[in-house]
Please model this.
Amino acid sequence: MLSAIPCFIALFSIFGPFLTDTVYLYSGVAVNVQASGLAGFPTIDPNAGFTSFALGARAALDLLSGHLPLWNHYEGLGTPLLGEMQSAALFPPTLLLAFPHGQALEQAFLQLVAGVGSFLFFRKFGLGAKAALSGSLLFEVNGVFAWLRNAIFNPAAFLPWLLFAVEGMHAMAERPLRQRLPLICVGAAMAALALYAGFPEEVYFYSLLLMGWVALRMTELSVRQALIFVSDLLLTGLIALALSAPLLVAFVDFLGEAALGGHGGNGFYGAWLNSGAIIQYIIPYIFGPIFASTNQTVSGIWGNTGGYIGFAPVVIALAGLFTPGRRAVKIFLVGWVFIALSVTHGMPGIYQAFMTLPLVKLAASYRYLNTSWIFCVIFLCALFIDRLPAVPQPMSRWILIGAVACGLLSIVAAAVGAWPLVLELWRESSLCHRSFIVGALLSVAALSFCIVGAACLGSTGATATVVSGILVAEAMAWFLLPYFSYPREAGIDNDAISFLRANIGYQRILSTTEAGLSPNYGSYYGIPQLNYNDLPAPKATAKYIKATLDPYADKNNFIPDWPVQNADRAAVFKERLSQYAQAGVKYVLVGTDFGFTPAFSILPAGKYAYPLGAGARVKISAQATSTNPLSVTAVSLLVGTYNNISTGHLKVTLCAYATCAEGLSDLGSAEDNKPLRIALDHPIVMEVGTKYTISIEKLDGDKYVALWMFPLASANTGIEIVGTPTTPRDKYLPDLRFLSGSEENLVYRGRSMSIYELPNTRDYFSAPSCTFLPLSHDRVNASCTRSSKLIRLELFMQGWSATVNGQPAPIVISDGVFQTIDLPAGDAQVRFTYEPPGFKVALVAAATSLLFVCAVFISVIRGVLASLSG
Model:
């Protein structure tokens, strides 16, 4: 039964009507993307693609090729991969990312792990099979798993296993060590896996809950039992640290040279969610689909809310408080929920006290406490279901009806902070948002009705069964809803990927915001990419980029962005192309309208779609606004193809000085909501102020195409636009751009990008008077006519070593960031190796502890088999 939900979700992800692989959403090379109809996104964190998938897949590919994933040559100037943590490089399920649909398989596997661990814990605690199964199924599809599909997903699965180990050690405090060792090893293995899973903040926060649970359970033990209990926990921790030593050594080594974003200084102190977010815990989609609203407050809530619980679990958890038994446990669970939510929302006193705990300031508690308090609510639900059959039927009926009333009151209380936002969304007049608000309220009404109906059944056993079904049904509905924001159809621009992989060698590419591979996806495709989006990231890389390449670059996220961020950035980018080449950049990936000059100034907001059917056209009369003379060879227009169904041909005619040129484009090759490039049959020269006309006509085809029309940035009475059969709105114009001159150094034009080759790119391996035969990023054969210095365009960092003809060669820093070694005259075999200091000792510790854990498990298995055969 526990495997049914993960198997269904895995099959639904792989064979369902949606494309759930993150490459279609976040890689930047998806083409012909057709939305499913539900707005928004399937997850609140795009790092499900940028880090968890792209970097995790790189680690998996390295492992399967026989290499430890210690270093990533494909991100930035090179960066630690294992020490980066979010890649979960040595986490066993990460290996699944090397295979098709690997992320769906990994997530389903972790859901199963979470469910089995929950079931074992609830049973070890003493709950019946029905209650344990209900709580386990509920945790398999909890709100953290539904909204956060990045590395945060991974360690959450091990919380119930750690509770199970603690509970088992508590129950066996009087047993001999030989009998306690299996549970100690289970706890150590699960703690190590939680660390390897790649998100230490999550582990740290739910470890606080674990420590509270340990303290609670110790109150039931004698002094002698408590000492044994604590000693077992300490031994568990020591074995877990030994198992995790390779990861911890790599991580700690990297931290000293890393940019940590908001995780330095006071970190996230003073940051919490506003009260408007509370209602989402109970009614998850009251604000519509994920990120579907343009309201900035709602978007901020979406980005910072780490999960939900739902209405039925709140009601059943409240009902559990009124059933007899296990009072201390219930007080503890309610207390943790109260503390966690108080910290999440900045309650004075409690928040400040919580922030005094070590390292808490450095993590986003408002986002990562959710796993722990959600599990506590689920635990309360399981306690109620377990106790319900023993409660007299009239009493259970009134308990459930009262709990429904309290649940509705909790919604009313939560609505106080959310009401202004709900009203704003309603006033947006969006059918989507209004439908979700109405649907949310109807779902609450339906769930209330079902729970009250279950309370009126004649048997409390039947009531418990129905309540369990309601809990799981609601959780499954909320879990599956974001899937409807995945695209239904899309393709990948594999031709562009193939071109890059065939021609890049050991040089680098640079993507821009206009087009190209998204940051980190070069790691997935095996294409060295200067862009990165990572935390932590090397400080030296950020410093070099900011000083030498892009003064507007961010430390943890580098991608040239213009002109929205800064009007000067595009000019700086073009001025420094030669410096990008010195950093090893061979190709620059841009949009199809790169190098085009806007025909007129328009505003980005307020656009609308102007449809053109067969025979329809618009004609614009204007004058050239560019400060430089133009020799226009192509134009681009931002078009909408209605999910790529437009047919026919679009013709443009540009006239200036009584000279006209024409261009024709097949709409079947146009991309929806992207610029359509149309080459002219000969250049049209336009001086500053030249009056010109341009006609845009749809010649044929039975499906419309839309011109995206934007408001003029200023009242320019010199521009006229007329249309047939209808004229566009007054003072609205299409996004029209001109390409002047030839496209020098353009080496590839594809569906998702254009690729320009930079001249005079510095080779990855270079040295005066030497020739090279690169064998990999880390191995090269050199032949020098005299002694020289090899410059390798890889980040200089502690842990790198080199040999020349098998002899150690000291590495020194070049250009403040790259690696340099001395080469002798003649032939030389050069090898570079990265290994964090202390890593070999860590491997020995991990291997020794792993052998010990395996020996204990084998002994247990042999004992079980012997007892069965006897």
User: Anything to note?
Assistant: The CA atoms of residues 614 and 826 lie 70 Å apart.
